[in-house]
Amino acid sequence: MAALENGELGPLLSPGTLRGLEDECVTDVKAQTRAALLRVLQEDEEHWGSLEDQHSSLAQDVCELLEEHTERAPRISQEFGERMAHCCLGGLAEFLQSFQQRVERFHENPGVREMLPDTYISKTIALVNCGPPLRALAERLARVGPPESEPAREASASALDHVTRLCHRVVADLLFQELQPHFNKLMRRKWLSSPEALDGIVGTLGAQALALRRMQDEPYQALVAELHRRALVEYVRPLLRGRLRCSSARTRSRVAGRLREDAAQLQRLFRRLESQALWLDAVVPHLAEVLQLEDTPSIQVEVGVLVRDYPDIRRKHVAALLDIRGLRNTAARQEILAVARDLELSEEGALSPPRDRAFFADIPVPRPSFCLSFPLFLGRLPLSRLARPSLACLPRPRPPSLVRPRARR
């Protein structure tokens, strides 16, 4: 009896038999989880088109289905735990690709657009909120699984990234459809004396803050950063399109002051929304400085800072600013535009800023200034002697007018 108590029993199954049983188990789990995941996705999808705002348990159901297997397998052996994690991660990647396709189909459905905007946004937020827990699950399974689990992890992350970007774009488009009438009022004569346009923008975005905050933190931060970027792009767009023309230093001062006030109000709004896109705060104040400064060297310095901080700005944008401030002096324009040109040349070959850091690239200038590439004789003096011809950018000629120019509506 003592010998039995102190001895160690050998394995009851041979390694080959044990491996065969594990193979069968992994095969069964793969088939079971695939069917179960498809079933929970179909059940959840049935509620996406409903007009009622129902809570989705899709992510929780998926996690519970897979964790039931991945938590038990390591009790048999570490190797079996790794194999089961790899199996479940493959099933998760396949499920997420199907999830991505169904989300795309949902947003392409014309009937969905008939929902009330608040309902549509709520449904979209629920889809986005599936992402963080499923992404965390994929990361956990990849850590436990063997090295060959990495492609499945990448496929899972790619599907979730696609869903998040799509849903963010849908939410942003809905919000900016509502905001567009307010943006249309910017940079007109009434805008100089009334805060109505900006109050409408701030009020609309602020009213949606509570609904947007239902989004989980990581996708919420990405969405708010994009809303912040897009709001500033839409604010600057009408300015560079030339809705205003400043005919005097007094008008330039008024426009610059209004730009600074609006920039401060937008900054306060996005601080409340917890935007981390602090790089956007300086763009409008920089533009205001370029409009208000009087001496060429100071304008050159400000343009240099603008180009350094926003490397996707181009000479056509700077030329549009000079048109707005009414700068006609050829030599002064050349000196200022040369700063942008030199910085552009110094950055040739550098990578473009990532999509979430693009700003001026999203603002086309419809009436670019033209550049003289040949000597132009003014009397007996060729312009080529005044400055480099490639930088002699002038505004398009306008017919003479006896009426004193002033800010347009």
Structural account:
By secondary structure, the chain is an all-alpha fold. The protein folds into two domains: 21-166, Tetracycline Repressor, domain 2; 186-348, Orthogonal Bundle (Tetracycline Repressor, domain 2). It is built from 16 helices and four strands. The chain has a two-stranded antiparallel sheet. Helix 4 (78-108) packs parallel to helix 7, helix 5 (117-128) runs antiparallel to helix 7 and helix 9 (196-207) runs parallel beside helix 12 (249-272). The chain is elongated and about 90 Å long.
Overview in brief:
The chain has 16 helices and four strands. The chain has 409 residues and is mainly alpha-helical. Helix 3 (58-70) packs parallel to helix 6, helix 7 packs across helix 11 and helix 12 runs antiparallel to helix 13.
